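Hi R.,

Here are the chain sequences for the assembly we discussed:
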Amino acid sequence: MQTIENIYKPILVEIIEVIQETADVKTFKLKFKDPEQQKSFSFKAGQFAEYSVFGVGECTFCIASSPTRMDVIECSFKVAGKVTSALDRLNVGDTMGLRGPYGNWFPIEEMKGKNVVFIAGGIGLAPVRCVIWNVLDLRKEFKDVTIIYGSRSVGDLVYKRELEEWAQMNDVKTVVTVDPGGETPDWKGEIGFVPTIVEKVAPSGVDTVAIICGPPIMIKYTFPVLEKLGFTEDNMITTLENRMKCGLGKCGRCNVGNVYVCKDGPVFTHKQIKALPDEY
Amino acid sequence: MNEYIITNEQINQLASELLNKNWNVVAESSDGISFKSITQGEDIKLNPSSKPSNLSPKQFFFPKSETLFFYKKTQTDVEIIDTAGVGNKTIIFGVKPCDTALTGILSKVFNWDYKDEFFNKKVENTVLIGLKCGYNDDDCFCTSVGLSPESEKGSDIFLVPLEDGSFLAKAVTEKGSEFVKENSKFFAPATDAKSKPVEMKAAPQKKFDPARIKEWLDHNFENEYWKSLGDLCLGCAQCAYVCPTCHCFDIVDENFDYMSGRRVKNWDCCQYTMFTKHASGHNPRSHQSDRYRQRVFHKFKYYPDRFETILCTGCGRCIRGCGIGMNISEVLQQIDKF
Amino acid sequence: MAQLVELAKELLESGKVSLIIGYTAKGDNATYPFIAYTAAEAEKLVFNHHCVNNLSVYINRLDIPEAGKIGIVVKGCDARALSMLIQESQIKRENVLIIGVNCNGVVKDVEMEWKKENVAPKCAVCEVRTPKLYDELIGTLEDFEKPDPTAMQIIAKIEAMTPKERWAFWQNEFDKCIKCYACRQVCPLCYCDRCIVDENTPQWIETSATARGNFSWNIIRALHQSGRCVGCGECSRVCPMGIPIGVLNMKMNMIGMSEFGFKPGMDINEPTLVGSYKFDDKENFIR
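And here is the predicted structure of the full complex:
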């Protein structure tokens, strides 16, 4: 009896660092247990993977690190259900599984030569972070780069050390905001909801690509602001989240109308999102 | 030349011989509930006019529960252990066209970019003996979805009952021809003197036009009609599980003990409330009407859009099995009239 | 049934109920659940030997917004389920208008021809041909040929087995289970917002359709139904694999009756068996 090629079998990875981003958000830095697999693994910014806690299950997150930095793979997650709770209990040295990369990716090539605006809210910064670093690592290929990020409160800001790093860069405009009431006494950033701050910063939509990710309500109010600033439907790009299982287009769980988030997404343009039926 | 004659007795003898060679020999169970592995050749009683079994033979290609791999954990490390892989050769006798078609239909999704070898190897490893169908009730609609009681799609060898009680056996695929060659003592080449095919019940009348329906579905996701369908459907999974083509599944980890277990692929159903529910509590399909709409759309629009194949064989099992009378054929006929 | 249609039209037209859950004919030999919202739709309501479904499953499950009183057509066995729902505080008595029907037996499964061999096993031992709970009562009782009490026969057969034989019997039956949960969805008393199989932290009951997963599911459902199941037989009817699950529930109810003198759904004022205690409850099983 010969064994068969198994598309559902994960690769083993080891947690080499755990970073507590906020009270309920963690980032894991992962290394492949088999260096050969690390060498042959490649992905594009925006793709996701299925992360396993053996004995508990699998969970879908984007790959939060950039493909320009292949020495570690990073993922960030918020504790919400069964598998994320189990992930929360893992430590440095523990073994996890990784299956992927799956899905489509941000159109980095088409973005070259243009201005790029990144807009994110809360944990929505995680799927955007991979493409931020991808762009910054190839900084000369892009024109103006703006990062607008907000969270409910200072405590909820993720990737704090990187927000500082980006703020230090003189060829990147970084604007960080917290919701009104979420500021601490020594907060020096903006105070206001992300869509309001986008309106204030007012990046021009001409020859610019906007990458947006965050809670549905933030996205809902950000799109009209961007439209007013001259962004086209094709140049506003977001990444969608839905309940997924196999990541391979087979289990039938993640479809929104005709579109399979794991195969046709998770990266979509505003135009594509508008065409989706109301079931996500 | 690929037509042969085989008698009932020869079929039973063939089955016995295959059993001796450790083949998994499968036929419809006598209680009409499902397809089962048999233990003796005489257990095969081909009845072309029998009602489709409650459960389709889908589970011989896509089991209701299937191990993907085992895992063994140590303090910090994990070892993944493959499953045993492909099992014994399998042969399923007496499969009607509305069931044989399932391998071709499901092959599309199970090979979409990534190849599910669990499914593929089972198809490769199985010989399907199709049987011309003489059953027809109000719930059958194979002819409306491009099939018929004589369709050879998916069969390796197709049996047509003859008036003298024997069967005309057509080798449809290369696998079928090989099988006949390897078991030639049971298959006599058909001659012009062969008996005529038995007259059987007429095929079901075409009840709706799937192309017209798809066109309506293309523009009517939000139509009021879907709301009415949600009232009575109870949201169990019977229709999906008995169906030869429903393929949605769940992947879960099951532990044997603290340090070991398996990851398993189980049948799942879009009619369950929890199917699309996010960990945050948000449910994109929170009403039964949304879920029933998904069933119709998936089978008659999304699958055809992507694979040019309808995800349905018209076997009618979902209608016969539904305890409260949901009837997809009637829904489609209604849509056809809009 | 003219009497039913007249009553239904009057109730809907007067606004006493916002809808009526009843049965409608499908061809000559079948009926299926149907909801009438208007007097015109009420014309389609019927009652006959093919009215097998237990409609009380819809009382809590309907996706329709709350809008006044709900009318429902029930047989005696169905009314017992309604009674239990009231006793377990799932519905308020004043929110339902119960149209009880004097029942002359129903078939085992919806599309069967009405004759002795096809009569449902529960009708052989029915004590509620006139429902115990109703606001309106229609129909007249007539004699009919009772079938053999097959359910009781199965119970007697199992009771005669040794524990090892019983284990093998149920193992064989549960092996067939495909975890479609039709039994759960059709049961009026399986009303948990989140069923125990859907609890995944931890996963108390495995979801896989394996020997272990199937056994756990069917046993836990029988345990959760003990002292609550009203014996309507819907679970056994809808099981696509023909597993006699209702038999387990019936046996548990026999124990509920013999040990605690409780029969579910016979009296809406009676405290439920698993929802109450009495000082003189037997304790002879506590060792």
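The longest strand of chain A covers residues 11-22. Chain A touches chain C at residues 81-82, 85 (CB under 8 Å).

Let me know if anything looks off.

Best,
T.
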